[in-house]
Every structure is written in structure tokens, then in C-alpha cells.
Amino acid sequence: MTERLRDDLDTLAEAHGYSGRSEVIRDACQSLLEAYRETEYEGKRVLATVTAVFGYDNPAVEGQMVEIRREFEASIRSNSHNCLEDNAGCVETFVLEAEYSDFLRFIGLVRGAGESVSVESTVVPVDTMQPESGEH
To answer: Are the CB atoms for 82 and 89 separated by under 8 Å?
Structure first.
């Protein structure tokens, strides 16, 4: 764990009334496990947006993103890489259409690209976008 991450965890713990970083980590782990538990999306195709933010000029993370793009090329509908102002960081955005289980694997790989990667996502089942029969 990097010193910056430890400091951030300590700051978060103090600001939000946690007893310490262990409690913050435990809460985060429970949230992550909950996110991966079976949902109503199991077995369905989903449309997902995934945003990853990481430090500028980080060849290891950028290389991981390239590998992820190659592996999921057939499911990625859109992808962009942008550098933030004054080289404050990079933003990688993906729009993915895939089986829910493939989305979970995808987001796990993005999260695992490096300690400094912050990831947010949204997921919508594709079948909710299909018009009802008879509608135009």
C-alpha cells in the first residue's frame, strides 16, 4: 500500500468518524463484495459506462488499458483517453455492451490496472432499451 493511499485512508477515517483505516478498508471490502454479488443483471446483456482516472504519464497503467481494450475489443462500443489540464491525470472512458459476467471481469481488470486507478461505472440491462412491441 502506498504512503499516499495510507494517508488518504487516515484522512477519510478521521473525516467520517471511522475508528481507523482498518475500519475504512473493511467497509470498502464489504461494498466491493456487495457490488459483485448476484443481481438482477445475471445472465443479461448490459450496456455499461466505465470511467478510470489515474496519474499522468503512467506507462504501466496505460499499457494495462491497451491490453484490456484488445481483450474486450468485440464488446467495446466506445473508448477515449483524455489528459486532464496541466497534466493533473488521465481519464479513460469505455462504453461496453456485453454479458453481465463479462462486464464484471472487465471492471475487475480495470480496477486491477494499478493502485492509483479510481474507477466508476454505470450499468443498464440492454433489454430495458428495447421498445415494447407495437411502439414506434
So the answer is: no
pLDDT digits (tens, 9 = 90+) for 58-73: 888 888 999 999 999 9
* Span 91-112, average pLDDT: 94
Contacts of 56 (CB under 8 A, 6+ apart): 83, 84, 87, 88, 89, 90
Decide if pLDDT at 49 tops 60: yes
Task: Name the DSSP letter for residue 75.
Answer: T
Adjacent-strand bridge partners of 76: 96
Contact status, residue 125 vs residue 45, Cβ threshold 8 Å: yes
Burial class of 107 by CB neighbour count within 10 A (0 to 12, 13 to 18, 19+) = buried
Mean pLDDT of the chain: 86
Contact 92, 52 (CB under 8 A): yes
Q: Mention every residue, 6+ apart, whose C-beta is less than 8 A from residue 81.
A: 62, 65, 90, 91, 92
